[in-house]
C-alpha cells in the first residue's frame, strides 16, 4: 500500500470520525430540545389541569350553594311558615293575655327567622357573581363593611364597566373578602383601601390596611387563608405580591393579564 493510499484512508477515517462526532452533538442537542419541549408541554398540561380543577371546584361550590338555598326555601321555610300559622291560631284561641303575648313574641321570632332565611335562600340561589360586574361585586363588599362603622374603608375603580370572566371575578371577590376578614380579625387597622385598576392588558387589585402587620416568614404556620389566596391566583396565571411588616400594615397586589 502506497503512502498516498494511506493518507487517503486516514482522511476518510477522519471524515467519518468528524461526521460521527457531529452526529452525536446533533443528537444531544435535539434530545435536549425535545426534553425542553416536553417539559414545557407538561407545564402547560399541569396549568390547564389546575385551571380545569379550579373551574370544577367553583361550579361545585355554586351548585352546592344553590342546592342549600333551595332546601332552605322548600323545606325549612315551609315548616317555619306552618309553625307561624299554628302560632297565629293559638293566639286567636287563647284567652289569657299573658299566654297570648308570649305566643305573639314567639310568632314574631319565627317570622323574623323566616324573613332572614328567605334572604339567605335568595342570595344562595342567585348567581350574583356571574350576572354582576366586578365593580358592582367589590362595591357591594365595600358597602357592607362601610355600614359596620368599625373603621374607614375606601374603594376606587378606574373602569366601572370592566368585563371579566366568571373565574377571575370569583377569585378577585373571594380574595377581597379574605383580606378584609383577616384585617378585621388581626390587624387592628383604622383604614382599608380597595383599588381595582386596568393597566393596558392587565388588571390589578390592590388591598391595603394600616394595621399592625405581621411577619410574612411565619405565614406557613397559621396562614392557610393566605396560602389559599396565593394558590388561587397562581392557578389562573396571576401574580401574587404580599408585603407586610410588624407595625407598618399590609399590602396585597394581585395582577392578571387580560
UniProtKB/TrEMBL annotation:
<dbReference type="Pfam" id="PF07730">
    <property type="entry name" value="HisKA_3"/>
</dbReference>
<feature type="transmembrane region" description="Helical">
    <location>
        <begin position="6"/>
        <end position="28"/>
    </location>
</feature>
<keyword id="KW-0808">Transferase</keyword>
<keyword id="KW-0067">ATP-binding</keyword>
<keyword id="KW-0472">Membrane</keyword>
<keyword id="KW-0597">Phosphoprotein</keyword>
<dbReference type="GO" id="GO:0016020">
    <property type="term" value="C:membrane"/>
</dbReference>
<dbReference type="GO" id="GO:0046983">
    <property type="term" value="F:protein dimerization activity"/>
</dbReference>
<dbReference type="InterPro" id="IPR036890">
    <property type="entry name" value="HATPase_C_sf"/>
</dbReference>
<dbReference type="InterPro" id="IPR003594">
    <property type="entry name" value="HATPase_dom"/>
</dbReference>
<dbReference type="InterPro" id="IPR005467">
    <property type="entry name" value="His_kinase_dom"/>
</dbReference>
<feature type="coiled-coil region">
    <location>
        <begin position="100"/>
        <end position="127"/>
    </location>
</feature>
<dbReference type="Pfam" id="PF02518">
    <property type="entry name" value="HATPase_c"/>
</dbReference>
<dbReference type="GO" id="GO:0005524">
    <property type="term" value="F:ATP binding"/>
</dbReference>
<protein>
    <recommendedName>
        <fullName>histidine kinase</fullName>
        <ecNumber>2.7.13.3</ecNumber>
    </recommendedName>
</protein>
<keyword id="KW-0812">Transmembrane</keyword>
<keyword id="KW-1133">Transmembrane helix</keyword>
<dbReference type="InterPro" id="IPR011712">
    <property type="entry name" value="Sig_transdc_His_kin_sub3_dim/P"/>
</dbReference>
<keyword id="KW-0418">Kinase</keyword>
<keyword id="KW-0175">Coiled coil</keyword>
<dbReference type="GO" id="GO:0000155">
    <property type="term" value="F:phosphorelay sensor kinase activity"/>
</dbReference>
<keyword id="KW-0547">Nucleotide-binding</keyword>
<feature type="domain" description="Histidine kinase">
    <location>
        <begin position="67"/>
        <end position="258"/>
    </location>
</feature>
<keyword id="KW-0902">Two-component regulatory system</keyword>
<dbReference type="InterPro" id="IPR050482">
    <property type="entry name" value="Sensor_HK_TwoCompSys"/>
</dbReference>
Amino acid at each position: 500500500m502506497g503512502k498516498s493510499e494511506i493518507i487517503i484512508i486516514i482522511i476518510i477515517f477522519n471524515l467519518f470520525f468528524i461526521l460521527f462526532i457531529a452526529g452525536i452533538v446533533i443528537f444531544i442537542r435535539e434530545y435536549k430540545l425535545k426534553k425542553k419541549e416536553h417539559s414545557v408541554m407538561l407545564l402547560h398540561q399541569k396549568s390547564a389541569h389546575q385551571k380545569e380543577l379550579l373551574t370544577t371546584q367553583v361550579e361545585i361550590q355554586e351548585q352546592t350553594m344553590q342546592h342549600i338555598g333551595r332546601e332552605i326555601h322548600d323545606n325549612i321555610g315551609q315548616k317555619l311558615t306552618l309553625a307561624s300559622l299554628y302560632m297565629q291560631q293559638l293566639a286567636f284561641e287563647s284567652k289569657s293575655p299573658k299566654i297570648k303575648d308570649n305566643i305573639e313574641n314567639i310568632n314574631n321570632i319565627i317570622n323574623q327567622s323566616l324573613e332572614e332565611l328567605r334572604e339567605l335562600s335568595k342570595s344562595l340561589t342567585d348567581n350574583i357573581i356571574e350576572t354582576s360586574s366586578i365593580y358592582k361585586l367589590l362595591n357591594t363588599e365595600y358597602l357592607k363593611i362601610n355600614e359596620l362603622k368599625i373603621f374607614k374603608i375606601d374603594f376606587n375603580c378606574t373602569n366601572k364597566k370592566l368585563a371579566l370572566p366568571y373565574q377571575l371575578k370569583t377569585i378577585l371577590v373571594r380574595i377581597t373578602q379574605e383580606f378584609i376578614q383577616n384585617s378585621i380579625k388581626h390587624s387592628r387597622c383604622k383604614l382599608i383601601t380597595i383599588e381595582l385598576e386596568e393597566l393596558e392588558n392587565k388588571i390589578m387589585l390592590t388591598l391595603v390596611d394600616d394595621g399592625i402587620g405581621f411577619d410574612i416568614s411565619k405565614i406557613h404556620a397559621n396562614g392557610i387563608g393566605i396560602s389559599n389566596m396565593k394558590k388561587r391566583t397562581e392557578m389562573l396565571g396571576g401574580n401574587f405580591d404580599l408585603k407586610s411588616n410588624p407595625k407598618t400594615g399590609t399590602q396585597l397586589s394581585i395582577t392578571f393579564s387580560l
